[in-house]
Amino acid sequence: MNYVNLYDEIAKTTYPGRGIVIGVSEGGGYAVTAYFIMGRSENSRNRIFVEEGEGIRTEAYDPSKLVDPSLIIYSPVRVMGDITIVTNGDQTDTIYDEMKRGRCFAESLRGRRYEPDPPNFTPRISSILHVTGGKFDYQMSILKSDNGDPDSDNRYTFSYWGPKAGKGHFIHTYMSDGDPLPSFEGEPTPVILQGDIDEFTEKVWKALNDDNKVSLFTRYIEIATGKYETRIINKNKRR
């Protein structure tokens, strides 16, 4: 697959759902990640990202309107030493706990499946960024039903070693809007990354569909030191 412009790829559909981007900054000095959420229902749109320790969690913007928190309230980002975990659900905690016990990334997800939300059976997308000793590598995973068949699972893990400056990969839950929502297909899309953290954040946010976007998290981790900067944008802003 050829590398494509990340912002054009995000803007191709009105509803990519939830998405993870990982790669290396244009100048080569930073490990880059982004995680965004979108929503079609009032319950899904009633969310914001808030910082929690070195990671983030989702939270109801208006708690009085929260209907079912089971699949929308979770910690998308957690940090375990030199590993940053980014996922679209509570499997963040599963990965964190299992890797603490010594399991690898793929093994940590063996007890998890796609989300129990028929008829969509939303894929679980997960990733880890490993920054240590001035080096960076990352892995991505998708757990999905087999073309909407809840009795069959498709489980894929992708590993990226020696990533190059200005390049990365993008994975998301849905190919497009629909009913039911069609699951992501194929490998994570190779993408071109541009700009510093502020330009990157602004361009990703702008590329997301105005009606459906909810929140965006971005982080630049300095590969030489492990120090990081974070940005969060919420469509619902608290006073």
Unreliable stretches: none
Q: Approximately how much beta-strand content do the residues carry?
A: 35-45%
Name the average pLDDT.
97
**Gyration radius over CA:** 17 Å
* CATH-assigned homologous superfamily: Inosine monophosphate cyclohydrolase-like
Q: The CATH topology, please?
A: Glutamine Phosphoribosylpyrophosphate, subunit 1, domain 1
CATH hierarchy class name: Alpha Beta
Kindly list the characteristics that best describe this protein.
239 residues; mainly beta; Glutamine Phosphoribosylpyrophosphate, subunit 1, domain 1; 7-stranded mixed sheet; 5-stranded antiparallel sheet; 5 helices; 14 strands; 15% helix
How is the secondary structure organized here?
Layout: E1 4-5, H1 6-11, E2 19-24, E3 30-38, H2 42-45, E4 47-52, E5 55-60, E6 77-80, E7 83-87, H3 91-100, H4 105-108, E8 124-132, E9 135-146, E10 149-161, E11 167-172, E12 189-192, H5 197-207, E13 213-222, E14 228-234
Parallel strand pairs: 1-12
Antiparallel strand pairs: 2-3, 2-11, 3-13, 4-5, 6-7, 7-8, 8-9, 9-10, 11-12, 13-14
